[in-house]
Amino acid sequence: MSDKSVISPAVPLSGHDPLNFFWFIPTHGDGSYLGSETQQRPSDFGYFRQVAQAVDRLGYQGVLLPTGQNCVDSWITAAGLAEATERLKFLVALRPGVTSPSFAARQTAALDRQSNGRLLLNVVVGGVPLELGGDGIFLNHDERYEQAAEFLTIWRRLVAGETVNFSGKYYRVENSRLDFPPAQEPHPPLYIGGSSDAGVELAADQTELYLTWGEPPAQVAEKIARVRAAAARRGRSIRFGIRLHFVVRETTEEAWEAANRLISKVSDEQIAFAQERLRTVTDSVGQTRMLDLHQGRRDRLEVSPNLWAGVGLVRGGAGTALVGDARTVAERLREYQALGVDTVIGSGYPHLEESYRVAELLFPELGIQRPGATWRRGLANEFAAGAGVGPVDLRAAAS
Known about the structure:
- InterPro entries: Alkanesulphonate_mOase_FMN-dep (IPR019911), Luciferase-like_dom (IPR011251), Luciferase-like_sf (IPR036661), SsuD_RutA_monooxygenase (IPR050172).
- It comes from Camelimonas lactis.
- Keywords: Flavoprotein, FMN, Monooxygenase, Oxidoreductase.
- This is Alkanesulfonate monooxygenase.
- It is a single chain.
- The chain is an alpha/beta fold.
- The protein has one domain: Alpha-Beta Barrel (TIM Barrel), CATH 3.20.20.
- Helices cover about 40% and strands about 15% of the residues.
- The protein contains 13 helices and 15 strands.
- It has helices spanning about 45-60, 75-85, 100-115, 130-135, 140-160, 195-205, 215-235, 250-260, 270-280, 285-295, 325-340, 350-365, 395-399, and strands spanning about 20-25, 30, 40, 60-65, 90-95, 120-125, 165, 170-175, 190-195, 210-215, 240-250, 300-305, 305-310, 320-325, 340-345.
- An eight-stranded parallel barrel has the order 1-4-5-6-9-10-11-15, surrounded by eight helices. A two-stranded antiparallel sheet has the order 2-3.
- Strand 10, helix 7 and strand 11 (about 240-250) form a beta-alpha-beta unit.
- The radius of gyration is 22 Å and the shape is globular.
- The chain starts with 19 loop residues before the first strand and ends with a helix.
């Protein structure tokens, strides 16, 4: 049976449906060690395609493509990867302020149609004023969210098929329309992250799924309660997802060794520089919360059972990983699932190898069925060890 066989229904665990599990395309580079050029991999499309095709075959439902000055453009990359994959969905950055809502609507329709409805959109308002200035955006934090609200209002009406006339504080359009609608109705789903009050209000008002970075469960519970309440005030409901790195191994000891190895080439001077830079260049509430988890200290990295903040010593954005054997990591994920999380966006270094480890070790514990996992056994080989057949004559096999 080929990898294109029908996926068998997954078995729910602990009273929950299986999580939607996504992976990450490392368009800013990849490697085996954080903060080091040792065993580093370049940001080229051939490697992105390798990762995407692997996770497509392994049963991940989608991939996140990051955005920013240090990333290869997510829209163009997703367009190429859509042609190289079959099932995979693409979570691509929608950037209010960086582009116009009318142009973004046309891009949305084109990529959604090209990918046969596999487009998802991650609303990124931005949290680094210096980088935003390079894109011509000079609004303060809350003003950027006000601008995003107008942007999404126009965008949603266009992709729904309306002819739009709009005059607001940040945008004015006259007789704008979209002649080619997206494949998905009424539009590709909108995801968003944002820990500030302005971010929560925009999420509750305009989007379908709220993403949080991997904070301890109590802090995630507080965020979810805020967003749920804000959505309820508008008569809406909203789904929840979490962004995490993973270090999963067959034993807990192996997992912690791998986590420590990941930061083994980072010096204390590099950590101090990265922490100072991350705190001074951002006005993101979520980034500040990430940094506060560990305060840049190597002795404070396990911020909750199995939740390790070592990635955040030198990396901005998502800075925590679940570390452990597969069963333990699955238990930690079910703690988040009990809070209302139904989607996980994972990653690991390097992303190609770690996508296999997560799929092969963690998916069975989560009840996630991989495509082609129920293949029919054939002749014995070195992996089957003679399963289903009689003893193998090694001398005959070698002849």
